[in-house]
Batch of 2 targets.
Target 1
Amino acid sequence: MQSILPVNMLRNIICILLLLLNIESVSSKTIKKPPIDYVCPEVKCSSDCPRGYTYDIHGCNTCDCKPSPIIGPIDCGPVCKIYCIYGNVLDVHGCPTCRCKPKPFQTVVGKCPKRSKSNIECPAKLSHSCNTDYDCSAGKKCCAFGCTRKCIYPKHGPLIYPPACGRGVCFISCPYGKIVDSRGCETCRCKPKPRPIPYPCPRIICPFRHCHHGGGPSKDRHGCPTCGCR
């Protein structure tokens, strides 16, 4: 065993030396140092490269663009232990931060009443009871009221919240639905049958024809006159 170990070590050393010589040979072939008096040829490329051009084996410019770097997935790291109802604010890399997103803004349906046309001189600094519709409750809107802003019901009523109608008392079947009251709740009256949309009859030119028995021209299934007789 003592005579075999040095032989194996010698073989390993020889393999390592051959590998290093091979690497040096390949690198010397791919990267050549140009002579001292070597001048790079002038190249005119038709396309622009945002990351610049590649070089040849002599270190001279080519018209090939440098490839874009491959960006792997970003490790966002630990996030602070806070609960955000609407999620965390993201940074430029798409990673969550320690700030919470604000409540999403939504406008209450309806219009604010018209402002008073009286000439009122308002103070420069005045606190408002609301800034947006989300500062209000029960379907109210944040509207201008005199010199300030306050929560009032919109012109067409609080439409963002469904009305509390309760249970119905009549047991009737309405093929076209029930009539609703001013609150939007169903009543015990049925909607009438909707009127059919009038069919636009085409314009026709018929040869002169006398229809016997005073029947007159016939009509098609849409009620439009034809060139035939009844």
Target 2
Amino acid sequence: MKQNRKDKLPIITEENEHEYWIEFRKNLSPRIREAIVKKYAPLVKYAANKINISTKNIRDIEFEDLVGFGSFGLLDAIDRYDPNKDVKFKTYALTRIMGSIYDELRKLDSLPRSIRKDIKEVEKARELLEIHLRRDAKPEEIISMLGITMDKYNELMGYGIQSSITSLSGIFYTGDDADEISIMDTLKSSDKTNPEYLAEREAVKKQIV
């Protein structure tokens, strides 16, 4: 495996990817993780484009929302992928990304419009603060900007990012190889309320939209 300068991310190719995965599982290298995110972030955009939303049933959903939902799936896939199993990461990740998007759409479809509106306000405030501050916005800064309590903020984040997997039972196939994987089998959620996890999701979104 070719080593790169310390100030550069590893270049992951089809030939060396398995070796990098083995190394990543041993030491959880942030640089390898970032390189994996960079390589596979386009899968989130691909999945978001593939999903056909019925605006009659689910209103106020934008492409960026789908990217955000899918970003959770990509990060979960990186956390949970086992390189020793006979499934390519692309297959596993794409299944998890699409499952995450569908899962969030089902949940949002059951939320009142007022709650969806409040969630969007939080996201807009976060984006504005990050543009102004040139760094990740802290929850305290977001609630100060919006004039809401931390309890309200946590409630909205819970609505926006909790997972429900009761109706996911389909099989997803990439078409690239013989890999076939159940969406239900991939959706064991990470702690999506963790601030570091949320910040990483925002970083993935910025690479895409």
